[in-house]
């Protein structure tokens, strides 16, 4: 059972309360000392991104779209997982995908086979960025008929650090970790595992061939992000996929029921 | 890895924070707060900012970074502590019902602008 907290998802919910930070152009001269003059600014550095993310979030709410931001290190299985998930979700949910990649359109081609509209973002064109920012998503949205979408999934750039810092307006963030990456990844990249709402532990079909200790990962997750749901699955064999898909459906239904304010 | 993008955001905010009546000023210092759990490496941010600020009003400005500890609070026993390793279970009662109080900051606190030489008054 999962509870959908009705407050709109916003990044930096952690240690970053809806503080009353002043917005743009709210500067004032604070003090004068010899030789220099200090001007108070007090602005979040990612204010511009956060504002665009909020705009995306409003658009999703207005269109009744539930948005997932899928993140992981390169090759943990995001695209494979999406291919399998879309095949099972598409019959009753209208899905669309935005996929970020530093170059190539291979992921987009694989995902387009599902029949879902897919927009590929090559961040090369944006300076080889290591993450998708809110303005990039906003631009990608113009390539999708939003009136015909219930679930939008964003496959972020393969990277366990940078995407954690950038809100794109999503409802939920999900991190994929494959068992071949080692048990220590949550402890090495705590921000990502704290910022996400669920963990997909992928490639469990390989466990018989590895020394991977699943219990260690679960203990580590419980320390870094107590209570975060963990789904152990194999995108390849399909094992464990049902629980993850049920979670998505539960989240979507909860958002629909939550009073939109 | 995204420090250049962050440096450019900082530069935008710095430039927008210079009062309109103070054209042609030189920014000497930019004071920042960076939480220890933010995905920013201070040294590489300083380097990127130096590159980004070249030929602007903030060229040569020092990026002064105050690193903020990760602090958490237990919602069950109300214990508050500084998180040294990424473990968010309450050290007092082992509850997982905890929340972060600080450590995710990435904020510009203020900028410092070089004062023009006061006009010299001959008596
Ligand atoms: N054995 C096994 N292999 C998998 C599984 N999921 C994905 N793979 C393989 O892992 C490799 C990478 O998978 P992708 O789906 O491309 O990974 P990705 O996260 O989308 O990669 P990037 O987009 O490049 O970051 C491919 O060779 C997949 O076939 C799984 O559950 N089990
Ligand atoms: Mg992929
Ligand atoms: Zn406690």
Could you say what the CATH topology of chain B is called? hypothetical protein PF0899 fold
CATH superfamily of the domain at 2-175 and 252-257 in chain A: P-loop containing nucleotide triphosphate hydrolases
Which of globular, elongated, flat, extended, rod-shaped describes the shape of chain A? globular
How many domains in all of chain B?
1
Largest sheet of chain A: 7 strands, parallel
If strands are numbered along the chain, what order do they take across the biggest sheet of chain A? 5-4-6-3-7-8-9
Strand coverage percent of chain B: 25-35%
Tell me the total number of β-strands of chain B.
6
Radius of gyration of chain A: 20 Å
User: Average pLDDT across residues of chain B?
Assistant: 92
Query: Which chain pair shows the most residues in contact?
Result: A-B, 48 and 49 residues
From the alpha-carbon coordinates, what is the Rg of chain B to the nearest angstrom?
20 Å
Which structural class do you get from the secondary structure elements of chain B?
alpha+beta
Give the CATH class of the domain at 2-175 and 252-257 in chain A: Alpha Beta
